[in-house]
Nitric oxide reductase NorQ protein (Brachymonas denitrificans DSM 15123), 1602 residues
Amino acid sequence: MNALNEPVFEVPYYQPTGQECELFEQAWKQHLPMLIKGPTGCGKTRFVAHMAARLKLPLFTVSCHDDLTAADLIGRHLITAGSTVWCDGPLTQAVRTGGICYLDEVVEARKDTTVVLHPLTDDRRILPIERTGEVLHAPDSFMLVVSYNPGYQHVLKTLKPSTRQRFVAMSFDFPPPEVEIGVVQQESGVSAEVAQRLVGLATSLRRLQGYDLEESVSTRLLVYAAKLMAAGMPPRMACLAALVEPLSDESDTIAALQSIVDTQFPA
Amino acid sequence: MNALNEPVFEVPYYQPTGQECELFEQAWKQHLPMLIKGPTGCGKTRFVAHMAARLKLPLFTVSCHDDLTAADLIGRHLITAGSTVWCDGPLTQAVRTGGICYLDEVVEARKDTTVVLHPLTDDRRILPIERTGEVLHAPDSFMLVVSYNPGYQHVLKTLKPSTRQRFVAMSFDFPPPEVEIGVVQQESGVSAEVAQRLVGLATSLRRLQGYDLEESVSTRLLVYAAKLMAAGMPPRMACLAALVEPLSDESDTIAALQSIVDTQFPA
Amino acid sequence: MNALNEPVFEVPYYQPTGQECELFEQAWKQHLPMLIKGPTGCGKTRFVAHMAARLKLPLFTVSCHDDLTAADLIGRHLITAGSTVWCDGPLTQAVRTGGICYLDEVVEARKDTTVVLHPLTDDRRILPIERTGEVLHAPDSFMLVVSYNPGYQHVLKTLKPSTRQRFVAMSFDFPPPEVEIGVVQQESGVSAEVAQRLVGLATSLRRLQGYDLEESVSTRLLVYAAKLMAAGMPPRMACLAALVEPLSDESDTIAALQSIVDTQFPA
Amino acid sequence: MNALNEPVFEVPYYQPTGQECELFEQAWKQHLPMLIKGPTGCGKTRFVAHMAARLKLPLFTVSCHDDLTAADLIGRHLITAGSTVWCDGPLTQAVRTGGICYLDEVVEARKDTTVVLHPLTDDRRILPIERTGEVLHAPDSFMLVVSYNPGYQHVLKTLKPSTRQRFVAMSFDFPPPEVEIGVVQQESGVSAEVAQRLVGLATSLRRLQGYDLEESVSTRLLVYAAKLMAAGMPPRMACLAALVEPLSDESDTIAALQSIVDTQFPA
Amino acid sequence: MNALNEPVFEVPYYQPTGQECELFEQAWKQHLPMLIKGPTGCGKTRFVAHMAARLKLPLFTVSCHDDLTAADLIGRHLITAGSTVWCDGPLTQAVRTGGICYLDEVVEARKDTTVVLHPLTDDRRILPIERTGEVLHAPDSFMLVVSYNPGYQHVLKTLKPSTRQRFVAMSFDFPPPEVEIGVVQQESGVSAEVAQRLVGLATSLRRLQGYDLEESVSTRLLVYAAKLMAAGMPPRMACLAALVEPLSDESDTIAALQSIVDTQFPA
Amino acid sequence: MNALNEPVFEVPYYQPTGQECELFEQAWKQHLPMLIKGPTGCGKTRFVAHMAARLKLPLFTVSCHDDLTAADLIGRHLITAGSTVWCDGPLTQAVRTGGICYLDEVVEARKDTTVVLHPLTDDRRILPIERTGEVLHAPDSFMLVVSYNPGYQHVLKTLKPSTRQRFVAMSFDFPPPEVEIGVVQQESGVSAEVAQRLVGLATSLRRLQGYDLEESVSTRLLVYAAKLMAAGMPPRMACLAALVEPLSDESDTIAALQSIVDTQFPA
């Protein structure tokens, strides 16, 4: 479990691609919880960090996984050297401080987590902490945000309708080329021309998804490739390491992907 | 587990659609436990809260889940900093105070919970608390209410006939349009005309259930959309976020739903 | 786990339908354990309570479930506030006091429970309590009774032949009409004529079992309907809530059942 | 777990049907462990008790089950009120006292039990007790006996060849009629003529095994029926309760079995 | 778990059938771990005991099973009466004393055991003990030996290639007749002529493996039969108990096997 | 779990086969985590040890397995004799000291480990330690390296795309012949001619992979064979023990492999 209080001193760079900022802000003002759907590495986490900073709210991020339980979110008594202390989980911290709690890949969490989300997502907006006997009332500034990747759901892992229908929702996708070029430049320091070529390559690679690849190249991987190039690595070697090898283990597929790289970055 | 003692200071708004209030009250007077069946977000929880307030009874709500055990309902000794204290679970609290214990989505709970429900649901009306050696006799005002959604039952999760036949039962559905319009207005503050359009849209969307959608739009989601509109958001954007995106991840389905939105809220 | 010592001050009403009382009494006199088979709500629990009272024996009832272990039956050391105390389970209490231990739906219990039943069900009639080092010899008046519902057995849950062949067995079914009419009257206070109609309705509904219904209407549900009628509720509404809704979630089936109700209780 | 030290003051009645007593005694003298195979209720447990008494050895019987672990056999530290004490399990007790440890239905036990059996069943004949640091050397008089029912093995539950090949083995079956008649008389007190009829009935019923019945009537059930008759119960009623109902839940099968009863005990 | 320090005072009898002793000794000298493959009861355990004694090394044998964990091999803090003491597991003992640790049927162990084997089986030859903070460096005389039976592997239980490729390996089989005759004589005291007949019988029985039998008769079972004969038991009865019944539960197969016995030991 | 701090005093021998050293060093300088893919025993672990020594970084190696949890990586409070002490896991040690943490066969680990890897693999580069309340910021010199074998992935065990896309990746394979010959000589001390023959044999054996063998002969096994030869063992016997027996249990396959050995090392 990952309890993570990130005091944000500057607003992380985020280039909107639609009205997602307005919707987020309205949902926050109306005390509605929010569900963000989208593929790996398209910027969901960055977007939430950006909004938290813009709204001047502390952010508590939890990467959900198969063994994440309600206690991981709420907190527990820890037996440490010599004494027992109560330790708030990230959800409790977010409620206490009136911040944003962001549950990344929420469908991975165990089902008993839904029970702590339900009373926080209807008009009660409370968090009962059974173990200490407290019932926390979420301040107006508290917001619950969850996300998942619809293209990578397990058969046995979906959000129950009774949970899902408690959220306002929006879909994310990779940013449009002009936006993504800016992101790659901003994060890696490569030239506009190199960034443009990388995004062009990404567009070609993304067309293959569903045919040969489970997922396609994310903006994060583009930034990785750009960083390696900015450090002086030959473009083909950087693309192989950062864009091709992370996507497939099949030698045929790797060769095909690398030949697409060659069209953008000829030897 | 969610132990939740809600002192109710005012009767929550509830618009009956049949004789459900009379049946609930008679079951309560005859000491019969009640089972409520119905889809997500149709108002079961609100109805129970309404009846509890009308009957001036404390209400203890438990959202059941895969890991909910008998101890979660009855209580346990908690090891806190420096001492050990017994902590009543919500069922025990309801029995002690003669209130209503409401187990939402009871089929999700683990099977050992049935053993604590059985002696409370026949003419013994007792709750044995093994761990403290107590046997509580439920006062006349105590009532056990359980609910589940018949349209979303797991294959492996049903109420055993031997448990189910211990309850008086009733079916809930979405309220008729004239009632739902009132609910949407009451909860969000939109005009009667907007509420009417939203309910008309809901009626259109609900016709699709079973074809393209696992569940359809709930009254709760209508209220979400209405709240966003009341805050000044354009209707199409509000409907997309609150009615369409929460129902599906498929881009084809989302487009089809949004085109239905367009008929009620043209651009 | 449900440890339940019920001091019985009066003999609960029970109307025999055959020689079940004689067989039970002979098995008790011969120190033979007894297995009772029969559908939900046909009166097995009431019968055992009746016999325990007639034989002036304390009765310890345990509703078995998936997580019931040997320790739940025998007892355990409980860590309570400040000290550790041994707490007899219901089986141990029954052996110590020479009473009847009744394990309802025994096939639901975990398999390690069989190990405590075996030495009590052959000529040794002993209960070894490993944790305290005691070996209890069951007094002559002790009797072990188990039950299950043959119509609702899980594929993976049956009594092993090596356990089953340790019991004298009998089959229960719903009582014949003239007996059931008396039970309904006795328990609810309705007139003989209403009780007769209800039992007639039950007979019609029970014919459907195996076709549309997993189980059919029990005597307990008849009493529920009768109680609601005795409190002034219209018969059709009482039958819908107590006889029809508890049996099915399918709207077609509910309508079919309700039309059978109409023939006995026309509007 | 069932730790059970039975000081045997008299030799239990056992009627040999072959050279099983000689084989058992030779295996004991040669320090070879023994495996007994046979159906439920055919007398395996009685035979072991008989041999233990004849050889003047203490007997420790363990009914194995799905959750039986090595610690259940060897022993554990028990946390009791105020102190911690080591408590020998039945296998350890048998080794310490040089008695017989009898593991009934050994295939049911968990696999970590085999690790404690292996060093006891080869020429080392030792029992290491990890928790106390002891290594017990089995005295010459110690013997390990295990049994199972080949007709009722789970697919996933068999004795591994590496365990099985450590035992001398023999097969048991129901005793021949003349022996079984004697047993029934001896145990119940009925006349020779009634015992003969009961054994004749058993022979008829056993022919049905494999066709309609998973297992057939055991000697134990014959004794049950005889006891009920000896107490004055009509033979047909005694046979229904003790021989027919324990074998089947199917009404057709029960009727067929009861018609066979009628041929031996006409109304 | 079976921690077993066997101080070996004399070299156990072992008759080599090839160059297995040379290979074992070279592997030990080169600090290479060894994997021994072979059927049940063919002498793997005896061979390892023989080599340990010849090389004058202490031997620690562990029979692996489904629940064997890394802690069982390394050791743990034991809570005993009044105090907590660290207790070395058999692997740790072997490393500390520079002996041989022999994991019998290693494929049965849980997967977390591989993590303690890996750093001991490459050129690091270390055993980190997380719980005490120690890192033990294996002395030159330490050797790890594992074995399994390729003919009895579970589908889900194989040695991962990444573990398997860390061992020098050899295959064992039953000894050739002239060797096995010597073993049987040596262990049981029967005459050379009886030993010869028994080994001839074993050869006939082993030809049936794969047709009717999961495994065939081991040398250990031959010794059992010989011991019973040496004690005066008729050969056919001894062979039935020690060679036939341990191999099959099917009456047809048992009769076929016994008829093969008759050819070697006619009545 | 294997916490293993290896102070490296000399740079382990590693012969590069491409630009893997440059890529590793650039990834380390750019603070990018690295994923290494490749078959068993091809030198991944040695490569990481080599790079750690070259970069003068402490190395913490963890062999992942089915039961490896987040606590195994991060650390836990250990209850030792008389006191409770916090013990850093290998990942925490690597972060504190600014070293390399290498998770070998990361796909084997339990899913809750991903949650501790995620915040270390994006631009936050932090390790929250819930149990002690610490949040460690990874120093610039910290690097996370993971590996797995694409040819031996379980169906249920793959790296989630959301985890995988956080790493720069490269593929390893067995070294080319001239390099491998040098490795074999360096590690075992055999002559160049013997090393050449062994590598020629490996090339022949590796062509069989996918036909008869799950995996083929690794460089490590070649070194084993060479060590045995260097100690004087006949080449055919050394190859059988070190190259053939570890690869297969099938006697046909073993004979075929050994006949290939004969072509390189004729008798």
